[in-house]
Amino acid sequence: MKAIKKSLLGIFILLLISLTFIYFNQESGSPTKAQDIGPTHRVGNYQIQIKLNPGKPKIGNNRITFSVRDSNGHPLSKVTLEAYAEMPAMGSMQAMREQVNIDNSGAGLYQGEYSLPMNGSWPLSISLQSTEHGIAESLFDMNTSRQGVKLEQATPSKFKTGTEVAEPATKLKALTVNHYRRQLIGVTTAEVICQPLMKTIYAGARVNYDQSKITDITLKYDAWIGKLNADYLGKRIHQGETLFTVYSPDLVSAQDEYLDSLKQSHSAGLRKATHKRLTRWGIALPQIKAIKKRGRTIDYLPISSPVNGTLIEKNIVMGAAAKIGSRLLRIADLSSVWVDGEVYESDLPWLTVGMNAEITLPDLPEHSFTAQVIYIAPALNPQTHSAVVRVQLNNEDGLLKPNMFANMNLQVDLGRRIVVPEQAVIYSGKQRIVFVDKGDGRLLPTKVKTGVRNENMIEVLEGLDYGDSIVTSGNFLIAAESKLKAGLAQW
Length: 491
What we know:
This protein is α+β, with helices and mostly antiparallel strands and 491 residues long. It has six helices and 31 strands. The strands form six sheets. Strands 13-22-25-24-23-26 form a six-stranded antiparallel barrel. Strands 1-2-3-7-6 form a five-stranded antiparallel β-sheet, with no helix packed on it. Strands 5-4-8-9-10 form a five-stranded antiparallel β-sheet, with no helix packed on it.
């Protein structure tokens, strides 16, 4: 029994020593074997491993673990690590981004949580930053239909290992251009960068009436127009102002009935019924009180404006007959106006209600307005294959006139994208070519797939990596020489 106790005590002591050794080893930052949470990826000056939980992402809450080390395998615990999963835009659906909330667990481990609202492809963007090791960015393919993640692109690794991502093979051959010739033809280079990208959609537009602030003046009885004060289009109308007077035999008869009911003290029900009849015909309470006070009918009853605004339609003159329900006048409140832009079908998937739009006027270049999109038409114009996109603008000063021409500029935030200067891209038929500077005077023509443009920058979807050095000027002369030396077939 004593022998067994001594043996157990010895095992316990050895276990305690081992745990102590591991603890101090990690705290001191000395190289330890990377935790087996996934393949090691070289990104800039970092080594990173990623483990998903569950391994195949699912709708709802998910967890993720990052292991971050330097080139020698030391765990790095003072790294600013940011990550997000973003489903690309598809058709009319906008891109969706889900941020990963990350906590530092120490010893180079970082724990994160994220939530996915739907199945599909959710590329994972990761940014690493520290004072000693600099900035590095990477993009991993992540999908709810398969396990784990796959590295798509990353900041080039600064150290050599056997597991680095191999440079894709290409059929195009490098061209050597010495320093003197570079200066002669004005070759300049720049690095491929990853930056926020904005897409600007330009649309022709027109100022229109705010249809929610248009009032029609009609009658609920046949009548004849007496004095007409709303006598010309464009006239400013004030609420309560008399628009015109009307004579109606039915209206005079109704007034007589009301006055008779007032003389019969025992006929409260009749009095109430005749009063209600006048109100149903649109006679205002102050007018009914005036009829009661004077004790006789009003032959030509004044019709008042219910709103402030501008007269934009007039269908009557003095003495004209007015039919029940017909539109006699139309008044528009111009204190606010709509601006309707025509956006082509190809640009509509980028737009959402609530996004900002800038409005400028060709005839008033010193004025510009910013507003939110309040409406996107559900159907296209069959002739132009465009749809109306609408904003509402304050117009208290009356500067904006209906039917004015305008320009609508819509800014779409595309998030962080890999981009190059547009002059770096050479168009060769359906192909897009960029010259990559491989060092030692070697320039490699590389086929790329481009995306959206933003002023002088263009998105690169395939063919280049973040940090690649590319030719930004003089590339047309290099392209001509490259074609002569290598032959046109490879282009």
